[in-house]
């Protein structure tokens, strides 16, 4: 595993980040422990979660993924070796103050996450989305207090628009508070415009480290789907609608060719393309099993040629 600085900061994180949205949803606790163990054995040190994971699973109130990670950290005794990231913003209760980025909810949310994770600090605390009902200076001052109290060490954002990120950076500079040093956007070979149209320039200019989620397009870029045999389920129909387009199949075909040329696999090639982009710190990979994880772990070792990168750029261009 290779390591990269987290944006402009001095913190070193693994070039791949282990996502845990599936803990308590499609992955049981035993399998989750096995995947986290394998990730650490491969020298991965960066794990991402959120307080809301996996609230959309039937009967899941949220917080389950954090609880699983907390039990794993206690059993393994390796907290100081893990760069732990979590997020807040989405509803965690029925009260109007059980969501958002107000001072109240931020303070309540960090205490709940620390309790579930069985730790006294979060390495990277992230706003899961913006909050139009709360002034950005209130949000950043609350995060700043958490950093001063030693409860968080770095701050990040997820799903922010370019103007929202710029507003936050401007507010932090003006008021001398903690700033967003990372951004989690959806970014992959198929979904490029959302990040590249405006966010890319902001992140490169201001040293914001990019931690892309859905880097394999919900599994489409792993090559497990076939044009004439798409599985029939509610979740996978969403994959088909988003990614299994004519251009999507063309992109996947090029990925498969380069995987063959590099004696690798399509997951690793798709991730390697991301890692070759400016400002990218660590794509977030998901895995329900150790076998799935291993196919992605090869990505940091792949050296795509300029010609191969140009082919992928060309076939996936949104311009």
TrEMBL record:
Q: Does the keyword Transcription regulation apply?
A: no
Q: Which residues cross the membrane?
A: none
Query: Keywords on this record?
Result: Oxidoreductase
One Gene Ontology cellular component term attached to this UniProt record is: cytosol
* UniProt GO MF annotations: oxidoreductase activity
Write down a Pfam family by its short name. Aldo_ket_red
The NADP-dependent oxidoreductase domain, residue ranges:
16-315
What the entry lists under Gene3D superfamilies is as follows: NADP-dependent oxidoreductase domain
The name this protein carries in UniProt is Aldo/keto reductase
Species per Swiss-Prot/TrEMBL record: Candidatus Chlorohelix allophototropha
What are the leading ranks of the lineage? Bacteria, Bacillati, Chloroflexota, Chloroflexia, Candidatus Chloroheliales
